[in-house]
Structure formats: C-alpha cells, structure tokens
Amino acid sequence: MRNVAVVGVGHGKFGKRNDATLRELAYEATMPALDDAGITQEDVEAAVVTIAGEEFAGQGAPSALVGDYTGVQPRPVFRVESACASGTAGIKAAYGMVASGLHDIVMVIGVEKMNAVSSVRATELMARAGDTRWEYPFGVSFPGFYALFATRHMNEYGTTKEQLAMVGVKNHHYGAMNPVAHLPKEVSLEEAVNAMIIAWPLGLYDCCLISDGGATAVLMSEEKALEYTDTPVWITGIGSGSDTMLVAERPSLTSLSGAKRAGRLAYKMAGIGPEDVDVAEVHDCFTIAEIMAYEDLGFCETGKGGIFIEEEQTYIGGKTPVNVDGGLKSKGHPIGATGVSQCVELTKQLRGECGKRQVDGAEIALCHNVGQTGQFANVIIYSREK
Amino acid sequence: MEFGYVNWSTNTAVVDKWNQGLMEKKILATKCKNCGTVFLPPRGDCPCGKEDVEWIEMNPQATLATYTVIMFAPESMSDKAPYVVAIGEFDNGVRLLAHLFANPNDIKVGMNVKLVPQQLDKNRITVKYVPD
C-alpha cells in the first residue's frame, strides 16, 4: 500500500443557504480545494461524491450533477453513502484508490442541501434512517434516539443535563470564531440548560443544526503529494465499524460499539494511542454523542465523559481539544459534507492555519464520524509525519 | 392488519404472524433452533444460517432500560406529540422499543413495565408499555 496525503482542502459557508442549490454548494467548496492543491480538474483522476440523501436535494443520482458542475467530467465520479458518516466513507474510498495505485489524485466532494424542505420534513426524512419496520413506526426522531442514550448515561454514570449543555457551550464558543460556521455565536450555560426541549433530556442547544453546505478534499499518492506541496497531511490510520440496525438491540445503550471498534483499529494502524492525539473532531450531532465519543475513543474513562467536559479538558489548553471549529453543533451538519469538513479543519490545524482556534504545534489529529445512530462509524488519523 | 402508527413496508409472513399474536393478546418472538438467539421483534432468518427459527411466546414483563419524551416529532407523527418512547428489557435479556403510557414525572429507569398489544383502529395494531 502506498502512503496517501491530503494536499488540498476547500470549505463552503455552512448555513441555511437559500442562495445556493446542491450544485453551487459543491462548486463553492471544490474550487478552493483545487486552488489549495495547486491543480486543476485536468489533474484529478476521479472524484468521490458524498451525499447522504437525495430526498433532501430532490435530485436523483446527484453525484452526476455535482461531477458535471464542478468540471470533473469526463473523469469518473461516483457516490458513497453511509448516512452522516458518508464524508469519511468517501475519504476511505478515495484513500483505497490512491493507496492501491489505481489512481494518483482523487478528490472527495461532500455536500448536502437540507433546507430545501421544512424542518419537520427534515426530521421525518432523518427518522426514516431508523428501522422503518420496527422502530420508525413509533415516531422516534433522530434527537429521540440519542436522548435514549442520554437518559441511560445519566442514570448509569450520573451525567447531568448541565454537563451535556457544557458541550454545546464549548462548541458554540469555538464556532463563534469560525467564519464558515452556520451559527457563529456564543451561548451561555444558562441559555443552553433552559432551552426548549426537543426530546427529553435533549434541548435545542443539545442538538446539531439542519444545514446546507459543502467541503472538498484532494488526496494524492506520496510521489504526487511531494511534487505539489511542502505541507502534506498524511492519512496514517483508518478504522471502521457498524452497529445493530435496531437501537433497542444495542450491546450497550451508553456507547457506540462500532465507533469504539473504529477507534481501536485506527489507533492500531497509525501506531498511536488516545494520549497522542493533539486535536480531534468528533461527531457531536448531539451533546451526548460528544460525551460518548470521549469515552469510546479513550480520551477519558468510561462513564467520565461528563466530568471531562466539566473540567474543560476538551477546550484548547485541556487534555484533548475537541471540535474547536464549532463541531456539528455550531459549525453545522450538512450530512454528506460533515466527514470531509472534519478533514478540512484537521488539515488546517496540522498546517497551523487556524488562527485564534489553532492548537499550537498539533502533530496528530483524529476524526470521528458516525452515521445514523452508530450504524456507521469511521475514525481517521491525520498526521504531519508519515 | 398493519403494524404500528405509521409504516409502508410490505407485510411478510413473519409480520402477519406477529400481528396475529398481538390480536390474541400474545407477544411473540422467534428463536433460532441452532444457536438459540431470540429475536424480538421477530426475524424469519438467523444470521448464523444453520437452522430455521421457531416461534415462542414472551413473558411481557420488562424493566425500563431507558426513555425519552419526544416533544418535536417527525412529520408523520407530529399530531401525536408529545409521547414517551421507551426501551424495555425482558427476562431473557432481549430489548424492544415502544411507547410508554405513563406520566413522565412518574417514569424511572429500572421501573417495572409490561408490554401489551394495542388496537389502533380496525386495520392497525401496535404494542405499548404500561407501568406494571
């Protein structure tokens, strides 16, 4: 297998983008990525497009549209889908094509247009990712599934609603410094704790946003990477896992077993442990998801995730800074774009380009991207060293 | 007979049998004759692939493993919100998700509940937990 590096990244503005359709959101992220890599579409051999649901965009076979509008054609394009983990699944597919020697330069375009439908409709479409025969018929919203984990976590480990809210407060703190964030504003703990309940115990500030937006990354073989850049960001570990379709059947109701497996395998491949991670992006679709991620990835002990955020260990200056771009909570969560957006942020962190949000001297970064309620999970380790 | 408040899946023989059980006030599950895994909701096939499954009747008593109160519901259920979604754990270790009909202030993880069939209209049936 050949070494693979991220050489170019681009990020569009996340938000309620009534000014842009799916194709334009993809374009907005892709042109800067090509520029950043110092290449044109002529150099790209293939593109992987990650879009979670065509129902949101109202476009069948949407990767063809994205490939056309971003100028990829006549080079091949295809779509990879793993719900909210689509972005990292696309990076994994691109990594495989480059590492194997099939291609030297592959682009991953993650994009989603969610606000073409109402929020109650979007809640409906996301709920259908639950088992449509046995769990969807009970009207379990996406926040509802994570609320089931939250209730159990609170009961088993004494995690509090305030600790959940602290995750949202942190992510909004950093999102306020991120120009591409959907909701770049600070939120107080009081506001977060007392916000309208969506699915008890999760309130408005425990839940990620319904966003539009795109993010693009250009991956290259070692030989090409060294030709185009002095600051390649190497992919040194990838691990993946899955979990039961029925949430009731989960081996644990306080942990995502697929995400745990993904972390273990990624650490092993990269030859590192959780203590080596300088900065992380984790899938905070809900505040409880970030707390479970701290534990599943070994940043803290099982059951101690609530205390870990209360001690501010995931702020810059703490043990493991997490989601210092605002996370899904404040930066936003255009589903198919998220895993690629995490790659963009970590690439910039490792290059030292994040300004006020920079984790000084970051050498090793971890990305944790979860699909549905854990049915898909990918962990990717990015590093300055091969 | 259709299962659940909303759905659009095809009724297979497994679903028909489950619905029939509910109409007879029984909670049915399937069990693999080879590895003994119990499936609730029922599956017609076991991933072990070695043997057929057989139907068994569940003891409907369970303990509450976790719950949530859905305030903002998916479009198809928005006229029914708020409602309590719960996961119960049965004596044989299997768990099932359904609504819990109880005052949210009286709900505690670990409380005893019972899974009972509920006829919604003449063509539709579901299950619900009630305090036991």
Overview in brief:
Chain A contains 14 helices and 11 strands.
Instruction: Characterize the overall form of chain A.
Output: globular
> How do the SSEs of chain B run, as a string of H and E?
EHEEEEEEEE
Please report the distance between the alpha carbons of the first and last residues of chain B: 27 Å
**Class of chain B, according to the CATH hierarchy?**
Mainly Beta
**What structural class do the secondary elements of chain A suggest?**
alpha/beta
Strand content of chain B: 35-45%
Percentage of helical residues of chain A? 25-40%
- Return the CATH architecture of chain B: Beta Barrel
How can the largest sheet of chain B be summarized? Answer: 5 strands, mixed, barrel
Count of DSSP H/I helices of chain B: 1
- Alpha-carbon distance between the termini of chain A? 13 Å
What's the total count of β strands of chain B?
9
**Which fold name fills CATH's third level, the topology of the domain at 4-117 and 210-228 in chain A?**
Peroxisomal Thiolase, Chain A, domain 1
The structural class of chain B is mainly beta
